[in-house]
Design a protein that fits this description.
The structure is a single chain. This protein has 206 residues and is of the alpha+beta class. The protein contains five helices and eleven strands, in the order ααβββββαβββααβββ. It has a single domain, classed as Muramoyl-pentapeptide Carboxypeptidase, domain 2 (2-Layer Sandwich). Strands 1, 4, 5, 6, 7, 8, 9, 10 and 11 form a nine-stranded mixed sheet that branches.
């Protein structure tokens, strides 16, 4: 056998041996895959250690602390990673198109009043722990446009102007994306915000 052919055979055998001894890569966990999807969307966030409160039944298995989704958030907030994805899609596909229709401008900031909190429900279709207790809820107090215009739920929900129409359209569209949406029309607990959650029960309180 020619020397060159012999060398090729030996090298091939070595490479095959190396490939066969290499352990297969472990598949991504859903937690890691979710964080990769957020990063691909250019969401600014930090991974957070799992949160657990065994005494009260609260906690988040895959929490992330988000600063910027499609828009900046008024303050960083801890939510379940899958719920963060739902909020990103909501901002991109509902909030921004509605803002451009009503105001001709984009939203630059989402003003929220809280996400994770180990507490019971205030209103809604069932009693017990709030979806806030699992990082699957956000209370939206309003939005800020790129020119500094503020649309505030407490001040602007009622009325006949563009701000009221925008908020009510956003709430209607949210009902198609979240399990529960509660507004100032629902009860006195929600007089100043839109409650959005991804729980087991459904309610559209608009």
């Amino acid at each position: 056998m020619p020397l060159r052919s012999l060398v090729v055979l030996v090298l091939g055998a070595v490479l095959l041996a190396g490939c066969s001894s290499r352990a297969p890569e472990a598949p991504l966990t859903e937690a890691a895959a979710c964080r990769m999807r957020l990063a691909a969307k250019q969401v600014v966030f930090q991974a957070v250690e799992p949160i657990g409160d065994a005494a009260n039944g609260c906690g988040i298995a895959n929490p992330v602390k988000v600063s910027i989704a499609d828009t900046a958030w008024s303050q960083p907030a801890v939510v379940d990673c899958a719920f963060a994805e739902a909020l990103v899609a909501f901002e991109e596909e509902v909030v921004q198109p509605a803002a451009r229709r009503y105001f001709g401008k984009a939203v630059s900031r989402l003003r929220h009043m809280g996400t994770y909190s180990c507490r019971n429900k205030t209103g809604g279709p069932r009693k017990g722990l709030s979806e806030h207790a699992f990082g699957r809820a956000m209370d939206v107090g309003g939005f800020e446009l790129i020119d500094g215009t503020v649309i505030d739920v407490k001040r602007d929900w009622a009325g006949a102007g563009a701000k009221s129409a925008f908020l009510q359209e956003v709430a209607r569209q949210a009902c198609r994306r979240f399990a529960v949406v509660l507004t100032p029309n629902h009860d006195s607990f929600h007089y100043d915000h839109l409650h959005l959650d991804a729980g087991r029960y459904r309610a559209c309180g608009i």
